[in-house]
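Record type: monomer structure entry
Structure origin: computed from sequence
Chain ID: A
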Amino acid sequence: MADGKEMLFSNLFRVASFLDSKALLNLALTCTRCGIAEEDCSWSLAEELARQLIRERSSEWELKALPRYLCPNPGCACGESWIGLLRELELLRSPLTFDQLIGDRVEHVGGDLSCITSSPPPGSLCDPFYDEWPGYPNTAICSNHVMRSGKHYATFSMKGCRAFCYFWAGVIRPIQGWDKLGLKVFSMYVTANHEFLQEEQTERWGDSDVNWCTFNQWDGSCCWADWEESIVRDGVQWSGMEAFEFDDGELGLLLDLDLGTLTAYKNGRRLGIMKDGLSGEYCWTSSIMAHYNPGHFGVEQSIRIKREELPST
C-alpha cells in the first residue's frame, strides 16, 4: 500500500513540476484526494507537492528570504500554506511592479507596471527657478512583493530631477486596499493617515517601529515614520549621505533583514547605511512629486523600479 502511495506521489510530483501555485490550488480545490489532509499527514497531497517543489527547486538565497511562518500554538504542525509560500517564491523570481498606486496624480508609464509618473494639477505651471507651486505627492507600492527575511536589493532609476521633480524611495509595511479609498494625496507627510495605517499592523511586522522609511533624492537624507505619532522624522542625516539634486540617476537600496539595515547606493556606488533597526515585513515603495508641467518644460519625469542581484559590497 505504501509503495502505491509513493508511486502516486512520484507521478504527481512529475506533473506538478510543470504547474504553478495557481494550478496547484485549483488541483486542491477540485480533487478531494489531493486537497484533503490524510490522517497521518499534517497537510494535503497538494500542499506536500508544493513543499517538495520549494525544497528541491529553491536556491539558498530564496530559502533564506522565504522562511515559512509556523503556527504560534505549541505542538501544532499547521502553519503557512505551502501553496501560498510557493506563490511568494514565484513573486520573488518575477520583476518588481508597482501594484498599488495611491493618489489622483500617479500612473504607470505606457502600461509598464514597474514605472510611474506624476504631474501637478492641470493648468499649474511653475517657474523651475521658483520653489513654490500647488502640487502634491502621490505614492506607489510593490504590494504583491512582500519581503520577510534575508537580503533584497532594488534600483530606482529617476528621470526629471533637473525639473525640480522630487522623489522618495524606500520601504513601507505591507498595506492593502488604500488605492481603493479615492485619496487625492498620499505620502509619509500626510500624518492624518498614521492612525489608520497603524491599524493595519499584524504580528508579521515584528517589533521594529520603522514602518515607513525612504531616501530623499533632493538632499539624500533619510525620512521615516512609526505611525504611532503624528510626526515624521524628516531630513535625518547619516554617514555617507549624498544627494542627487538636479542629476538623474539610479538609486540602489539594499534591505538586509538579517542585520535590520537599509543601505543606499548611488549609481552603483555604496554610500552607507541609511537606517537601522528594521525588522518584520516590508514592501518597496516610491513617492513622486512633479515640480513642473511636462507640456510646458518638455522634460519627462518618472521613476522605475527593478530587482537586482545583491551588490558585492
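Annotation 1: Residues 127-132, 292-296 have pLDDT under 50 and may be disordered.
Annotation 2: Residues 25 and 243 are 47 Å apart (CA to CA).
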